[in-house]
Every structure is written in structure tokens, then in C-alpha cells.
Amino acid sequence: MAALLSVCMLLCSGAEDWSARMEQIRKDYDTAAAQALSEELRKAGPQAPLEQKLAFARSLLLLGELYRVEFEGMEEGGAERSDRRALGDKIDDVAKEGFQVLDALGELSEAYRIRSDFYGIMIRTKFQGKKYRSKLEGNAAKALELDPKNPDAYVSVARPYLFAGPLQGGNLKKAMDLLNKALELNPNLVSAQMLHAVGLEKEGNKAQSDAEWKKILDENPKTARSKKTLEIAGKVWKEEDEK
Fold first, then answer.
1. pTM recorded for the entire structure
2. Which of 14, 99, 135, 198 has its CA 20 to 30 A from that of 156?
């Protein structure tokens, strides 16, 4: 019994450490640290405990999200198309590995939520939007069905409603309701805060949106990189709607 308790304590401690490290990596936009953490968690292999597998999937998603931020930055900086294509391939490779990890996790809300977000970072063109959007939405909805108290799942469900136009099923009011619920469950969830600010501007509340962005950027100026990524993502969804 004592040995079992010791193992449980070790796993809980590890989960807390992984979570804290990922939070810091996210704040720092530190791709190298994300790569190192993913490699560390990968070493445990398929025999790793469930909590470690889930942490590995989250670390891969984080790495993919940081690659996506870099990808959008390359477009702004006028990088060579071949370099952007290579980074896009990295995003897809990370997602594919993540899918393999998630397939072993069973019916977990977080597994479906992470899978949905992997599809999200893989949508970089109109073609990819057509290919992956239904999978993104289906997994996000399943995540919320399995756990109505998962704030990240509300963000994943809200994203297409927020960015898509009316012809593609966009619904700004529904998106904002979902984001408000996410913030009710976790007021410090930065992804929800940023999308909420985007939604306010779409509603015509530019001053309030600017105020929310100021608060977010004051807390961490590096989130300006995510702000730019969201602006570009919005254009992809808009182009799909116009098509």
C-alpha cells in the first residue's frame, strides 16, 4: 500500500511539474524548451502511465502551436516558400505523432480536445480547412460532451464559430457564449482571453477589445505573436467562407 501511494505521489508531482514547465514555455514562446520537454516525455515510450502520455500529447500540441506561430511570422518576414513548407511539414509531423499518442488514451475529454486543436494548427490553407474542419469540430464537441467543465474544450468549440463566416456556420453570439463559459471556469485561461478580445472587435466593441488586448499584453508582451497568428488565422477562415 505504501509503495502504491509513493508511486501515486510521484506521478502527481510529475504531472504538476510538466504542467508548470509547459505554462512557462508557453509564456516564453520557447520552441527549444518545448522540443526538449517533448523528447523527455517521449523516452518513456508506450509503457508510460496514462498521465505521462497525456502530458506528452500536450507537449506535442504546445510544440506544434509554437511552430505555427513561427510559421505565421515567416510569412510576415517574407521567408522563402521552401522554408515555410518545411516548417509546415514539421507542424503536420508533430500532429501525426500526437494523434498516435492520443489514440491510446481512450475516451478522455482532454484527448478529444487536444486532437481538435491539432487539426486546428494543421489548417493553414483553404484546402486544409476543407479537409480538417469537420474533424476539428467533431472532436471539440466530443470533448465538451465528455466533460462540460473542461474550459479548454469550450475554447476549441468556440474557435470555428468565431472565425467562420455565416456561410460556413459561423455564429459570433454562440462563440462569445462559449468563451464566456470558458472564462467562468478559468478566468486566467489566456487562449480564451485572446479569442474573447477578437470576438469583441467582431461585435464592434473595438475599445473594449483594445482594453482586453492591453491587459493581456501587459501581462506578457510576447503574446503579441499569438495576436498576429490569430489575425492571420481569421483571414484563412474568411477566405474559406468567401469561397
1. 0.87
2. 14
